[in-house]
Amino acid sequence: MKPLKQIYYVLLSVLGVLFLPYIGAWIKYEGNFSKDYFNFPALSAPDKAGFSVLAFSMAAAFFLAVVVLYAFPRVYGFKKVKFTPTQPSAKIPLPIWFWVGLVVWGLTLFMTCGKFQEPKWLLNWAYIPLFWGFTLMLDGWVYIRANRNSLLSKSPHEVIGIGAAATVGWLLFEYLNFFVDDNWFYPKADIVPEDEFGVYAIIGASGLMPAVFEIYNLMNTFPAFRHRYDQGPKIATSRRTRNIILIVALTGLFSISFFPEVMFGVLWISPLIVFTVVLENLGIWTPLTPIKDGNWSPFLKYSLCYVIYGFLLECWNYFNAIHDPLDPANITAYTPAHWVYSIPYITKFHVFEMPLVGYLGYLPFGAYCAVWWILCAFLLNIPTQFAHDEYSEVRAEPLEIYTN
């Protein structure tokens, strides 16, 4: 297929994710949206359905199945992968950007978690240095473990590209959040003017994806983990099957405004499916491509990356606010981007602001980050080391792989 036609289909998939939810909502409300339907940032959310034992039990069972998959992959038919370790390389000093990141991240974390009310210029924009400071630290760690081979040291332009792609990639989810009646909202966003929050959201979103690729590269510097999921069940799908899955995902996006509570999870799954299927049909590599050969490592590791990063984000977010033990809804925060959740059926057993089984949403989002960057890099004709697993693995040492 000619490149121009490939670009056409990729753009069509993006437009589908953007417009199908809007078309569904327009039909539901007959074009008469409430005046606050598309308000951003949302300061509150409509009341949702209460706790459901059945829904929670189903989600908890899936949560447990995922934990078993990561901890004991052989239960699911994965073969054990062994490696022949070599002598570690000479010690390398931490690069300067690690220390810069540590100072920026540490100072910002101290100010936010210390519940300081000043200086406003820092607190109002706190998540930007928090996200990027952490990313610089991760890159410095990868640098010393991977023999001076890290994103910033070898491909600083790609870090900038991923940050730019992250802005659009995350704002897409903020947009989809309108159609599920605000699964998350920002109760203290009115600390700053609405237009300032909009600028903050655009710039701040740039820090939500680069850390994923840094964590992924860091994982690959640990030989015992790097190939842990290389020899799994082989699952190949025909083009017809993929197209059926694509239609189901697009239908889900169209339908979410009709059933926002029942289908709130579609928000996290459908964009990943749509973009992955379209790229696969065009012959463009995605983290799910190697599954047909039994190699689940890229997909499972990218998914795990955002569970790790998401847990840290939730931790930082929770401890920058004061919570009333008698009234959990009564929150005092001095950073406008503090977020809370309004999720039906599963809203019990919180870990920070997030319900425990809600962390499942970070699994598809981690894979989405990789797929979204590959899609953006393709559209913009930007070379990326993440377009194939062979080039995305940063090696700490040579390995000899064999299976039992």
Automatic annotation (TrEMBL):
Superkingdom of the source species: Bacteria
Alphabetized UniProt keyword annotations: Membrane, Transmembrane, Transmembrane helix
The keyword Isomerase is annotated on this UniProt entry: no
Entry annotated with the keyword Transmembrane helix: yes
Membrane spanning stretches: 7-29, 49-72, 92-112, 124-144, 156-177, 197-219, 240-259, 265-287, 299-319, 359-380
Listed name of the protein: Mechanosensitive ion channel protein MscS
Species assigned in the record: Salmonirosea aquatica
The organism's taxonomic lineage, starting at the top: Bacteria, Pseudomonadati, Bacteroidota, Cytophagia, Cytophagales
